[in-house]
Amino acid sequence: xxxxxxxxxRMLLAAIIPLLAFVSLGAWAFSSPVGSSPDDDFHLAAxxxxxxxxxxxxxxxxxxxxxxxxxxxxPTAPCYAFNPEQSGECWVPDESGLITVxxxxxxGLYPPLFYATMSIFASEDIQASVMAMRLFNAALAVGxxxxxxxxxxxxxxxxxxxxxxxxxxxxxxxxxxxTNPSAWAVLSAAVxxxxxxxxxxxxxxxxxxxxxxxxxxxxxxxGARADAAVYACFAVVLALILGARLHRDALIPAVxxxxxxxxxxxxxxxxxxxxxxxxxxxxxxxPLTGGQLLSNLLEIPSLWIGAVGGWHLGWLxxxxxxxxxxxxxxxxxxxxxxxIRRLDLRRLVALLLVLASLWVVxxxxxxxxxxxxxxxxxxxxLLPLLVIAIGVASLRRDxxxxxxxxxxxxxxxxxxxxxxxxxxxxxxxxxxxxxxSSLDPGANAEWWWNGAPSPAFVWVLGSLAxxxxxxxxxxxxxxxxxxxxxxxxxxxxxxxxxxxxAEPVAQPAEEGSDLARTVPLADDxxxxxxxxVADVVPQPASAAEPAGKDHPVA
Length: 554
Hints:
Number of helices: 19
Strand content: under 5%
Distance between the termini: 28 Å
Helix content: 40-55%
Low-confidence stretches: 481-554
């Protein structure tokens, strides 16, 4: 019989936590007007033309060019860009007619899948369309992460949670609930490596499910950005380093990895954006001097800090207070230090590779583009690698016990404060501009969504949802003191699983001994303890050799 505590934890994980996560991302979807994510003048036009020519949405001027006609108010949406004192009031959403745009991804600069999917929601009502796209991406992120969480072996789940939570504030949340292709790039990075690794650690239906989720995540990333296609291939390498075995059970993960590489290569080679690795992202700049190269090498960590709030949001014009990056960076650094406490060779090699990539990738792009840190290369390009780095570092079999208690409480408090502050600043930047400041981001608002709840309500609800999500994660963790007084036995495996399910039941100690005998557990997938820790199950002493203080037990 299952204990009520276990049933409660499963209910929280299965329903309430994903709902709170969606509400948190939904608050970010409402926090800024149409066109607020970087380069949205291009991305929105590409979305409206993502399914080809459609009357009133994307029309061909028939002049032999790659220009397109889109709703007149679409390219003017970011009228406030680079002017933080300008609120979102400057945009006129109901402007009639069509206007010519010269950039709509007709030349295949980006992979087409993201734009084609978002284009399903495109209509003549631009505000409603953009909000639908943002909420869809928020739901997609929550849904995919939830699915991967429940299929993963239990001991690997903290790596997924820590990697996403620690890097979600503020840039991760802003991007995931946006119309920017980076939303899928970040989501793909969080999913592919750990789902494929999980496939190497499981059997039966669970292995196939994880392989399928890894492939789906790679498809999202490679179909959104060329660099995300490279990251998907890198995730395959990391997963195989961490979990590959010379056994027939490794066939499914290996084949899945090969398919991911193939699919990613197709998207990468068909996107003009992929040439940036060789030619750079700009042309015509003079070569960098030795001093500039050295400066780039030393300044690259500022891009990492930028990914956790050190750089401005949106069009790099929404400043956040220093409290945000400091608090989030403490959590990121803490996750790394907690994770590297016990490194085996495989995890050491994988972690060194991903940490090196965080330095090498931006340095090469800066070198090829002939620019210095602070221009062209943005922190969101590196956010997927940062997510992977935290995840690999957190892949410990005793991760649950490592985060139980004060560490989790401090990390959750730091992230909650950072989330609350950054959401308030982001809303206020667009409701009034930065020339006004108040606790209520809706006070004297010049702009807000038609028919939406007030800015203050969105801010408070989103912040409480985020805090509640982290609090329920803490509540859902097993209690160490309770587990210390219980034993673990194996139940019959559920249908479709090749493994037994561990269920804690109290067991008395053996007569004449302070300890009970130990036997191995049939399923360590759901066991939060480190691999190799035996499960306490009493065994009767031999009749010929009664147990006692002179006859120690195992």
